[in-house]
Structure formats: C-alpha cells, structure tokens
Design a protein that fits this description.
Distance between the termini of chain B: 17 Å
Largest interface: A-B, 26 and 19 residues
Number of helices of chain B: 12
CATH architecture of the largest domain in chain A: 3-Layer(aba) Sandwich
Strand order of the largest sheet of chain A: 6-7-8-3-9-10
CATH topology of the largest domain in chain B: MetI-like fold
CATH class of the largest domain in chain B: Mainly Alpha
CATH class of the largest domain in chain A: Alpha Beta
Structural class of chain A: alpha+beta
CATH superfamily of the largest domain in chain B: MetI-like
Number of domains of chain A: 2
Structural class of chain B: mainly alpha
CATH architecture of the largest domain in chain B: Orthogonal Bundle
Number of strands of chain B: 0
Number of domains of chain B: 2
Radius of gyration of chain B: 24 Å
Strand content of chain A: 25-35%
Oligomer: heterodimer
CATH superfamily of the largest domain in chain A: P-loop containing nucleotide triphosphate hydrolases
C-alpha cells in the first residue's frame, strides 16, 4: 500500500487532449473518487496510473518511486473493470487464483487466500462455476475478489457499479466502501455518478475536459464549490444560476438580476469590492430556497422574490417546485410532500448564507 | 434453434403450430437428403461388388467388397494420402505462423495504411492461379522445390494466407480488450497475455480457420498437379490415375478423398460452435 502522486500528467489521442496537465496526491489508504462527465479524462487518468497508457508528459509516483514507464505487472496494482473482465475460460477459483499463480505462490497458500477473498465477497460457494453461469452481480464480486486477493499497492476501479441494477448498486456501494475500510488499500475510483462519489469517497477529485476542477471532501465539494463547473455538476436538481450586476453603497451590497434584486449585508463589501458595476453569476441550491411563509424572516438572512408556480415534481420524499420569476425559472426543493397550485403566485426566500457568487470570465468562486 | 424461432411467434394456434412443425421438418429433410444422397451413393458404390454394379436388376446392391479401396491404395493412393496430409498440415502451420500475428495486428492496433494493406492482402487472390503456375514451376525447379510436399504447401499457404489473416483478425477483434488488459494488470507480459488469455479464447474461431485451410489444401488440385510429378497429393493422384479407371474405382477414390476431410471436420467441429459459454465468430 502506497501513496500515489501525479505530476503534470498530459495525454493526447490524436488532436484531442484527454488529460491536460493534472496534479493529484492520493494518501496511503485513502479512497479517492475521480468524478466527472463522460469524456472528461477520468478513465484515461486511471489507465495511466495502471500503466495501460503512457502519458505524453508528466510523472506518476508510487511513494517515492517513479513508475511512469513501468509496465502494469511491475506496479503491483489491481483493477476492477467496468465490464468486470472476468476471464470466461477459467472457473471462478482460477480467475481469483490467477494473479497468485503468476506470482508463483505455493499451492496451499493460494487456496487459502482465494478462500479468504471469496468469503469476504460471499462467493465461496461459486468457486467451481464458470463466469457464464453467474449473474452480473456475482461476476462483479469475482472481479473485486480477484483485485483484492493480491493485496495490491493501489486498487483501481473503473465505474465498477455502472452495469448493475439500481438496487444492487446501492448495496454494493456500501459493501465496497466497507471492504476498502477493512483492508485499508489505497483506492482510486472512477465514476460519473455523483451519488457514488459523495457516499464512497474520502475525497473527491472533480474533473472536466481533462483538468481537475476541485479536490476535496464530499462536504467541501458540495458546500464550497471552487468554480461554476463543480457547483453545477454536483447536486440534484442542479444549482440555480443567474446573472446579476453588483452595486455597492455604504449601507448594503445589491445584486441586480433584472427581474429581482437581492440585497446583501454590508459584510460582503470587502469580498465584492473589485466587482462593483460588474456582472457576476450567482448560484443557489434548490434546497436553499424556501416559500417565504415557512421561514422566520426576522433573522434577516433571507431575500424575498415574487413569482408564480410553473411546474411541480412530486417525488414523495421531496417536492421540487419550478418557480417562474420574470424571464427565468428558479428551482426550489422541499423535503416531504407539499401542494402548490400551478400558476398561483408565490413568494420565495433565498437563503443568503448559502449564496454562491462566481466570476463570469473564469467561473471561479468569489463567495 | 427451432424453439427459439417459435417462441418469437405470437403463440400460434395448435393447428398452425402443427403445420409449422411439419413444414420445418419437411424443409430440413429436403436439405439433408440433398446433401447426403450423393454421399451415400458414392460411399455405397465405393464398396459395391462389380457384378452387382453392372447388373440391371440390382438397384441397392447386397454384396460389398473392400477390393476397390485396397486396389486404389496399392496403386499409390496410400502415399498420396500421406502427401496430402503432410501438405495440409504444413499449410496450416505456415499460414497460421504468418497469419495469426498479422490478424492480431489488424485487430488490435491502428496504424497508417491499415485499410489499404487489408485490401492489398485480399487483392492477392485476384490473380488466377493458372497465370502464376508456369512461373511458379520454373522458379521451383531452379530452387529445387518442385515435386516436393513442401513446395505444394508453400503454394497453398500463399493461397490460404489472405483468408487466415482476415478470419483471425475478426476473431481477435471479437475478444474484449479488457480481458487482455486484466491479464497485463494481474502480472502477465504481452506475450503471456497472448498465450494464456487471447489464444484459449480464440480457439473456437481458430479451429474454424484451421478447417477452412485444411479443406482448401486438401481439395486443391491444379497447383498440386502442376508442381508435383511423383509425390502427388491425393486430388492430383486421383485426377491423373483413377479417373482413367472403372466407375467403382472412381467412387472408391471419392470415398478416400472425402473420408479424411470428414474425420478432420468432426474433430475440429466441437471447438467451432460455442465454448466457455461465449460465442465467437
């Protein structure tokens, strides 16, 4: 088990830049998730760490050792593939035992270790079966057992849950996380599913267009997005964004969104000083908007906006209300079920403590 | 197969179902008879007693003998069979030794000129054998390859190679890359992956390619006749000797011709269909 460091990794395929100079440090025993939309370079990054691709530029370190140009078998990593890649011409036992056989371990030790891994993943009674006799979920367990049986330096997982049905996916999510805690292996996990990332990762690296947009704990990623991409990518329904112009007077800081105005407390003056008269992008998550009648307005942390109810999604556990404010829609999320009449007038309160403000040019967060 | 075909239908009524079954069985019977009747007749007449063969009153003969086959074997068919087997096996070995790496490269790697190279390989089959036969003979005489099984095998390899390359490349392309990469991750070298992961998975398809190559070489008569004189392969031998003999000798010749090919196909066939529960082309 080691710590992993990426330094300026760049990889091109023809003219497209798949990975664009990324730096990443993964601590020993940490579970880190590479999260991003498809085509953002997260799988390529994983394959570079595995040694299946060579970077055009940059270095990969395991501990102090430079492994950039080592072939996969000399890195002592394990990988769980999206397709599982369980060898169809071998039994479950042989699949799990294969990496040990290659290492040349004595036979009784192999049997012992395979049994240990199989018990851990509850596939002990399937050892004599062939992969085509297994369900997708069982095959996935075989792939994981094969990956952990060698006690690898680093465990790599490439969307291992994406081919499972929804119910099994939720169960495997917690099982994989528990397993990783038990064997304490450094794990790098690739997914495009933000729920997987939030629930499993010790830290999350959000990627877009070959670059790492932000690295942080799930709470940091969710509550303090460093840029507009992370803010928009994480969270469902998506964060509300609208453009506004900043004006600063001694009494207050105002955000003019055209259809409505938000006035902030004077304490924001310092932060927004250089942006007076400039246009910025304001973001607020749907769960930080409430109907004004539900909140204690005296606290003064709310800004009121009038609109009409445009559409309601009743999900049972949550109610998502689309509120039409002038020319834009603000989405509000309430827990539990609530009734709203379509087209009726509504006054909503934006929680100013949870407001995000981004620069328009770079998308970087100001607040 | 049939069960699958029927389950696609929207639950036919019993009468319809019966009619459908009858129809299917009738079609299958016709197809089987079409193929098997000439087979049965030639095998039957290969062992027929000469008197019964020429008798007008006997349709299905009752008396059989091994004389014709024995006679044919004594006349040189025996060594011709040996030659043919040697040639066919050498052809498989050569065309696989050259064709597998090429097929693998076509399936797994992208490189400049890949498509035109593929086309070039097929276009080699454009030349009629007759055109290259005479130059080939003079070349073979000069380098001392004429009248040898090795010479014929090399010529057959040239004929089979384009197909071996194309067939094996489609077989290798059908094997998921992940399976090979998993091999690399879990401790194998590139060569190790090819031998221990790719080859076992490709076996059914490779068996098909081997059958194809074997039958092509076994049946090929023109080049074999031109390039050999004393070391005839079986088709060349039959063409030059047995075809001048009586009818039942011809039937015996056709039996000898068919039998080894059939045995080979029966052995290779079981690797063809599906193995390990996955279907490979």
């Amino acid at each position: 088990m080691v710590d992993v460091h990426l330094r300026g990794i760049t990889k091109r395929f023809g003219r497209t830049v798949a990975v664009d100079g990324i730096d990443l440090d993964v601590n020993d025993g940490e579970f880190i998730v590479l999260l991003g939309p498809s085509g953002c370079g997260k799988t390529t990054t994983l394959r570079i760490i595995a040694g299946l691709e060579k970077p055009d530029r940059g270095r990969v370190f395991f501990g102090n050792k430079d492994v950039t140009y080592l072939p996969p078998r000399e890195r002592y990593v394990s990988m769980v593939f999206q397709s599982y890649a369980v060898w169809p011409h071998m039994t479950v036992f042989d699949n799990i035992a294969f990496p040990l056989k290659i290492k040349g371990l004595p036979k009784d030790e192999i049997v012992c270790k395979v049994k240990w891994a199989a018990e851990l993943l509850q596939i002990g009674d399937l050892l004599n079966r062939y992969p085509h006799q297994l369900s997708g979920g069982q095959r996935q367990r075989v792939a994981v057992a094969r990956a952990i049986v060698v006690e690898p330096n680093v465990l790599l997982m490439d969307e291992p849950l994406s081919n499972l049905d929804a119910l099994l996916r939720v169960r495997m999510r917690s099982e994989l996380k528990k397993l990783q805690r038990k064997i304490k292996v450094t794990t790098i996990y690739v997914t495009h599913d933000q729920v997987e990332a939030m629930t499993m990762g010790d830290r999350i690296a959000v990627m877009n267009a070959g670059k790492i947009m932000q690295v942080g704990t799930p709470e940091e990623i969710y509550n303090k997005p460093q840029n507009i991409f992370v803010a928009g990518f994480v969270g469902t329904p998506q964060m509300n964004f609208f453009d506004a112009t900043i004006s600063i007077s001694p009494k207050e800081v105002a955000l003019d969104a055209g259809d409505f105005k938000i006035s902030l407390e004077p304490r924001f003056t310092e932060l927004l000083k250089g942006f007076e008269g400039k246009s910025v992008t304001v973001g607020i998550r749907p769960e930080h908007i409430h109907p004004s009648k539900y909140v204690a307005l005296s606290e003064g942390r709310y800004s009121l906006v009038k609109g009409t109810v445009d559409f309601v999604e009743a999900l049972g556990s949550d109610t998502i209300v689309h509120v039409n404010v002038g020319s834009r829609i603000l989405v509000m999320k309430l827990s539990g079920s609530h009734h709203f009449k379509l087209g009726s007038d509504i006054e909503i309160a934006l929680d100013l403590d949870k407001l995000h403000i981004f620069r328009k040019d770079s998308g970087k967060a100001i607040i | 197969m049939m069960g699958v075909g029927l389950s696609m239908e929207a639950r036919p009524s019993p009468v319809k179902y019966l009619l459908l079954r009858v129809l299917i069985y009738a079609l299958v019977s016709i197809a089987v008879l079409w193929v098997l009747t000439p087979f049965a007749i030639s095998i039957m007449y290969a062992f027929v007693d000469p008197k019964q063969y020429y008798s007008k009153s006997v349709i299905i003969p009752a008396l059989y003998t091994l004389d014709h086959v024995r006679k044919l074997l004594a006349l040189g068919a025996y060594s011709a069979i040996i030659n043919s087997v040697i040639v066919a096996v050498l052809t498989i070995v050569f065309s696989f030794a050259l064709g597998l790496p090429a097929g693998y490269a076509f399936a797994r790697y992208t490189f400049r000129g890949k498509d035109s190279l593929k086309l070039l390989i097929i276009s080699l089959r454009m030349f009629p054998i007759i055109v290259i036969a005479v130059p080939l003979v003079t070349l073979y005489i000069r380098i001392g390859l004429s009248d040898s099984p090795l010479g014929v095998a090399l010529a057959h390899t040239a004929m089979a190679l384009p197909f071996v390359v194309l067939i094996t490349s489609s077989i290798f392309a059908g094997i998921p890359k992940d399976l090979e990469e998993a091999g690399l991750i879990f401790g194998l070298s590139r060569a190790g992956v090819f031998l221990r992961i790719t080859m076992p998975l490709a076996l059914p398809g490779l068996a098909a390619a081997a059958i194809f190559t074997f039958i092509m070489s076994w049946n090929e008569v023109f080049i074999a006749s031109v390039l050999t004189l004393t070391n005839r392969t079986l088709p060349a031998f039959i063409l030059t000797s047995a075809m001048a003999a009586t009818d039942f000798i011809k039937f015996a010749a056709s039996f000898i011709m068919v039998l080894p090919a059939m045995i080979f196909v029966f052995i290779a066939r079981k690797y063809l269909i599906t193995m390990w529960g996955i279907t490979l082309r």
